[in-house]
Specification:
Mean pLDDT: 95
Helix content: 25-40%
Largest sheet: 7 strands, mixed
CATH architecture of the largest domain: 3-Layer(aba) Sandwich
Number of domains: 2
Radius of gyration: 23 Å
Length: 476
């Protein structure tokens, strides 16, 4: 099914016939071997994007919108095939993969609509012989780098505002999960996007690709989703050219259950916020703070529901949690569990890898967690939920904020005064209140502190791909 992919690449590698494999993390099956592109290939792709830039920007907003609408419909028409590719290369359950494809289509629909709403403004002039106004124009060629954990929705979330704004793009998907991006680009060609508007780069290593995107003066903006460490590197590489950047980086999301919370609702929300995509999400609940008065009830009910989560191949029926992406991710969660147990943590359920093939790990709940443990300070990125007991509502907010990250936070409470005070006090770009899921194409997605710069989604996401130009017209 995946051995001979017609959508492999728009470019022929210029640095030899190197190729790299893509594997199914559930089975170890070889899915495909793709061209392993380097800096020279990236430079060619940038030239193509630059050559197409003026023509694409010169189309009317309606023409760009129509192309996005066609792509949106093709994604929906081929959603089952796209979901199957996603599950095969990433491992997530097929139901989650289908949901992600639908979410990707939602971004295309949203920005197909927003393309027609790029407005300027007029400014009252200080004299009658002049007029002052502001127009918005596309920034130019965009370099985009997407992660492996949501390989379809991240492509759509980055590319759709880029195209709506009138920019062209060079995209590098994660080396672990490039196939669904390739399939989406094949559908984009069917949607009628002109040559050079969308350019896809496959590479097993991101260093050379990132350096070329950051150093090439034809690229005017970098959009990256990934680790804070890599984000810092890309920012340094862009600094010589003062290149515009949008970064969605690491997280360490707190999930707080106050004493006035609906415990059953909080348990369900925590399951959703923690175990979606096997915990491999930048907005995954990483630290669960539960008030002492409801701690035992919450922990018992939560552990009971976690035990019922079925782990397995994403194509199997009733599977809730698929594999971790690779052996390194598996080693990290094992190290975090071992550290917690050594320092006094209690495993309420899970705690072990499953089988010797694949990268499966039991969904795990640990109580009696203290601040000295790695799971209280580091992002696990896996199906591990540490529960931390607290008594002081003010202190728990301080603890939640005590991190360099500020992407997402969650809390459950009923008192309206507390809801407002906590929501405003949490130092995060997104806060879920009495819900474990908040992502939407209509809402701004992004963080503060070292979790990123800029926003994706919503009307605000379009602004990052536009330059504001002030026009002053005299002699009137």
């Amino acid at each position: 099914m995946f051995a001979d992919l017609a959508f492999v690449a728009d470019l022929t590698p210029k640095e030899g016939a190197r190729r790299f494999p893509v594997f199914n993390p559930s089975t170890g099956e070889l899915l495909a071997e793709l061209p392993d592109m380097g800096a020279a290939d990236v430079a060619v792709a940038i030239d193509r994007a630059d050559a197409a830039r003026e023509r694409w920007a010169g189309l009317t907003a309606r023409e760009r919108s129509d192309a996005l609408w066609r792509w949106h419909q093709l994604i929906l028409d081929h959603s089952d095939d796209l979901a199957a590719i996603l599950t095969a290369e990433m491992g997530k359950p097929l139901t989650e993969a289908k949901s992600e494809i639908a979410h990707a289509a939602d971004y295309l629909q949203w920005y197909a609509e927003e393309a027609n709403r790029i407005y300027g403004e007029t400014i009252p002039a200080p004299s009658n012989d002049r007029r002052m106004l502001v127009i918005k124009q596309p920034i130019g060629v965009v370099g985009a780098i997407t992660p492996w954990n949501f390989p379809a929705s991240m492509v759509a979330r980055k590319i759709s505002p880029t195209l709506a704004a009138g920019c062209t793009v060079v995209l590098k998907p994660a080396e672990q999960t490039p196939l669904v991006a390739g399939a989406m680009f094949a559908l984009a060609r069917l949607a009628g996007f002109p040559d050079g508007v969308l350019n896809l780069i496959y590479a097993s290593e991101g260093d050379a690709v990132g350096r070329e995107l950051c150093s090439n003066p034809k690229v005017r903006k970098i959009s990256f989703t990934g680790s804070t460490e890599v984000g810092r590197l890309l920012m340094r590489q862009c600094s010589d050219q003062i290149k515009k950047v949008s970064f969605e980086l690491g997280g360490n999301a707190p999930f707080i259950v106050f004493d006035d919370a609906d415990v059953d609702a909080a348990v369900d929300g925590a399951i959703q916020a923690k175990f979606r995509n096997a915990g491999q999400s930048c907005v995954s609940a990483n630290r669960l703070y539960v008030h002492s008065s409801v701690h035992d009830e919450f922990a018992d009910k939560f552990a009971e529901k976690v035990r019922a989560l079925r782990v397995g191949d994403g194509f199997d029926a009733d599977v809730a949690i698929g594999p971790l992406i690779d052996a390194r991710a598996l080693a990290k969660i094992e190290a975090h569990v071992g550290d917690a147990v050594q320092k006094g943590g209690t495993i309420r359920c899970g705690g072990n890898r499953i089988g010797q093939s694949g990268t499966f790990f039991e969904p795990t709940v640990i109580t009696e967690v203290t601040a000295t443990m790695r799971i209280a300070r580091e992002e696990t990125f896996g199906p591990l939920a540490p529960i931390i007991r607290f008594d002081d509502p003010d202190e728990v907010v301080r603890a939640a904020n005590d991190t360099i990250y500020g992407l997402a936070a969650y809390f459950y409470a009923s008192n309206l005064k507390r809801v407002w005070r906590v929501a405003e006090a949490l130092e995060y770009g997104m806060v879920g209140i009495n819900t474990g899921r908040m992502s939407s194409e209509a809402a701004p997605f992004g963080g503060v502190k070292q979790s990123g710069i800029g926003r994706e989604g919503s009307r605000h996401g379009l602004e990052d791909y536009l330059e504001m130009k002030y026009l002053c017209m005299g002699g009137l």
